[in-house]
Design a protein that fits this description.
Layout: H1 15-31, H2 35-53, H3 57-78, E1 85-89, E2 93-96, H4 97-123, H5 126-133, H6 138-167, H7 177-208, H8 226-248, H9 266-299
Antiparallel strand pairs: 1-2
Helix pairs in contact: 1-4, 1-8, 2-4, 2-9, 3-4, 5-6, 6-7, 8-9
């Protein structure tokens, strides 16, 4: 693909299926506030992110643990709603269990959405995004794709410039406050100059290739096949079941004034099962493909 990576597993499906899944996954993560389902959703999102990132993804997942803990513990400091008072502070201000659970629910939603966006950023490459929206909004899609591409390029260039200056004794962490400020300003100036020069070169290259001078054509390297149709049908059925659960209130709980879960019903159980199965589908596909590959290697 555009990044030179071997695309496999869930990422090898049609971009429309992949993009639609991430949109629906984020929406379901926001709408469902039942703690057990939120925990399952975070596990599914983390599992998929680890599947696409490997061991390098553990650092990101571990960094989100203190974020979850801090947001959970801070919520009762600002919200005093709830009947179960754990303790009081600041002259009798209550710290309630309901506010603590609500903070954990909000934190789980936040962490889950972040993990899905991390997975999206790794799977939905620039060429896939351009394929989906290039015909609808070509100029906006081009600008958005170039911005996403330039951010990591600028980061690498900034590290290169900082490393080169550090070798001659002008690093950003060398000297006093004044020297560090001057080094940072020089680094920023060099980076801006390099970026402006690169933009001029890019504009000249696009102009020489005839950009904007005629009818725009598109190149599609993706085909919606039977494999994509089967996955889309399964995900649509699971999404319909999860949506029915959301509509019936089976995926939500009331936190205030006391924690109250909805009564168990057959439709509620179906909605919960569909919710978990829908979010677990990408990780299950990646794990199944990895297991099949290892089994095939063991037989040779």
């Amino acid at each position: 693909m555009g990044t030179g990576r071997l695309v496999k597993g869930f990422a090898s499906f049609h971009p429309a299926v992949v993009f639609a899944f991430f949109v629906c996954a984020v929406v379901l993560t926001v709408l469902a506030n039942r703690p057990a389902l939120q925990a399952a959703g975070v596990v599914c999102a983390a599992a998929f992110y680890l599947c696409v990132r490997g061991c390098a993804g553990w650092r990101t997942v571990a960094a989100l643990v203190p974020v979850f803990a801090v947001l959970t513990l801070l919520n009762p400091l600002f919200s005093t709603r709830g009947d179960t008072v754990l303790f009081t502070w600041m002259g009798g201000r209550p710290y309630t269990a309901e506010a603590l659970v609500f903070g954990a629910s909000t934190s789980a939603m936040f962490v889950g959405v972040l993990l899905w966006f991390f997975g999206y950023n790794h799977v939905m490459t620039a060429d896939r995004f351009t394929y989906l929206f290039g015909r609808l909004a070509p100029a906006l899609t081009l600008v958005f794709t170039m911005v996403l591409r330039l951010v990591p390029i600028y980061q690498r260039k900034a590290r290169d410039i900082a490393g080169a200056r550090a070798c001659v004794g002008h690093g950003a962490r060398q000297g006093g406050l004044r020297e560090r400020t001057q080094a940072g300003a020089t680094l920023l100036s060099a980076l801006v100059g390099w970026a402006l020069e690169g933009s001029v070169v890019t504009a000249d290259s696009m102009c020489s290739r005839g950009f904007g001078t005629g009818r725009r054509t598109t190149f599609a390297r993706y085909r919606f096949g039977a494999r994509d149709a089967r996955l889309a049908a399964v995900l649509a059925l699971l999404l319909a079941g999860a949506a029915a659960g959301v509509a019936s209130g089976a995926l939500s709980v009331d936190f205030f004034p006391a924690l109250a879960a909805p009564h168990s019903t057959p439709w509620g159980a179906v909605g919960c099962a569909c919710f978990v199965a829908f979010l677990a589908a990408p990780a299950a596909i990646d794990l199944w493909e990895a297991a099949s590959w290892r089994i095939s290697l063991s037989r040779t």
